[in-house]
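Journal club prep — side note

Before the paper discussion, L.F. wants everyone to see what a predicted structure for a comparable chain looks like in token form. Sequence:
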Amino acid sequence: MPHLTTPPGARLPGARAGGMGFGIPGYAHPLLAPVEWAELTRPGTPLHWAVLNVTDGPGGRPDPHCTEAAARLREAGGTVLGHLAMRNGKRSFGELVSDAHRFRDWYRVGGFYLADAPADRGELEAVRRVVDTLRGLGDGLRIVLGHGTHPYAGYTDAADQLVTFSGAWADYRWSQVAEWTSEHPPERFCHLVHGVPRTHLEEAVRIARWQGAGTVWFTDRRGAGDRDPWASMPAYWDEIVSRIGLGVSE
């Protein structure tokens, strides 16, 4: 895999307007995954956003390697989201906002990914309070709620995008979409799927389109034990960039 960089003045065109693109849930630290972070700046990569997770959040102090990686992606026209660990609503409002301020001050993120966001109706107002506060940290910040499952429909009004599936291919290929999602455009939903074999990549793309997900991430990496399936790029990186970037006919 070549270590590509962006030529001076080049910009990431991202996905086609209204087209499918990538949501990267969090590569490993740039020191451990330098090629992965560099590849995201390749012109033509259909990137919607990439999550920066230093140490389950922004870390205790600015990390120069993360600062550089975020700056390169931002300069290439990409959107970097700071990872805020909600832990299904167990993190306090103050902790989340404090992490958000550090992400903005240290890494100039363009929004936030609220990992393990609650999905129940009873937690909606608490999540709204967090999101409203985050939006006050800057203009045009993108907010993605990482539920990993279909939440109560009211969450669509609380954020820019909802992750309505996060899990293994074995579960995804037989998954069903909630009926209420048909009332919203694809750009409101994201699917993250690991363990997708190369031979089933086209099928995975078609499922996402059929279920109305405008942002996706498919990888052949598998999660087992402490292994993070999102930490590195899939072996079929070039193929998925080409396939998603050009689109697949219905």
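L.F.'s comment for the group: Residues 30 and 37 are 7 Å apart (CA to CA). Keep this in mind when we get to the figures.
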